[in-house]
């Protein structure tokens, strides 16, 4: 009897241990996958969310994922999408690049419990031409430790993701082309809606977020009919589809695509589809090749983005968005020379002609700061402001201004003078240690704790405010309503509307 009792106890203990162990094997669309526990977080990498867009599926909407037999290992990142090496700060952990790249990654709490958890889907930046969900700065483990199921997703880039062409339009059942990368993002969000509960996530509490091109993408997803109902909150860091690049009409994008194909030696769609991916990539990198981006195609983007936001057609979800203090250097508008009043006035005359005096009134402050701000505004800051300003009329909106410069590098390069483009990502995602370039200080870690806490609160509750944090008013509250994120964070009144309204008037003349 003692032997039998001991056996029962051992079996019971084994069952309890198994029940308490984190679930690293889950069933998703396509079959079963097995991840692993990494530093107390369940990580699932390289999960396919659509069929590989290769062969006849090149420049097609993403198709359903192909089922597999048995248990698929999800312990390594999938391929990154085809891209040229454009930015030195990008670090990839993917095995290589390929057209077969539609994979996503999930980080989830080891023991999520019975309550459904909020979800973060992060869309990488890189000018819609480069980037990957494997980059350490986007790692979702820190979010998972805060009770959030975090994902990064891949999407097609450059000409593979955004080529518009008359023959592609003609063969399409919806008579449009381009925006395949946006459709990939929407397909990933649809996958999340169907499958995230298997990881403990709540499909009704999804926040989409992104920086630069990822922020452009977030603003686009908010006006895409096919993405309606797939997310509940949005975060945008430095950029929107309302910016200078905009979303040209389909006819213009088709003309550009046809000219590119002809110039590259691919006279027909059949020739384009038959060409090796590497040959297309190299053609895209030649001098004079166009940049491929978001298109007002009448289907994915069904009308001009400005019209959608002006008419209140966007998803009316809470938005947290902002930009950094030095998105561009002053030299970008001053031919890489030091700012002086004379050079700044010459730049205003060059850019605005008869409106130079009006521009001077809008930027009537310290010339170094004014030139820096104008350079950033002309690139992406104005578009981000416009997005925030219009969306605040429809839903709760919070705006930030990130001003913490990166510290000195470990090899002795001095600290930056301003918060450069993309500098905030590691701070917001609590991933400073994943970036081995900089000698992070206690102040940097304090800034990261603050920014990360605001993001976590917003992802969980749709409001960044929380205990032990400076109060962050909505942008619609008069006075101090923008959160300056730095060593000493706090709400302030930037008094910058005049300069953005100047750009509004300039945009109306175009």
TrEMBL record:
Molecular functions (GO terms):
hydrolase activity
For this protein, the Enzyme Commission number is 3.1.1.-
Q: Which UniProt keywords apply?
A: Hydrolase, Signal
The reply to whether Hydrolase figures as a keyword in the UniProt entry is yes
InterPro entries tied to this protein: AB_hydrolase_fold, CarbesteraseB, Carboxylesterase_B_AS, Carboxylesterase_B_CS, Type-B_Carboxylest/Lipase
Name all Carboxylesterase type B domain ranges. Answer: 24-489
**Top-level EC class, please?**
hydrolase
- Leader sequence residues: 1-19
Residue ranges the record marks as coiled coil: none
Gene3D superfamilies membership:
alpha/beta hydrolase
Q: Does the keyword Transmembrane helix apply?
A: no
Checking PANTHER family in the record gives: CARBOXYLESTERASE
Give the UniProt family note.
Belongs to the type-B carboxylesterase/lipase family.
Instruction: From the Swiss-Prot or TrEMBL record, give the protein name.
Output: Carboxylic ester hydrolase
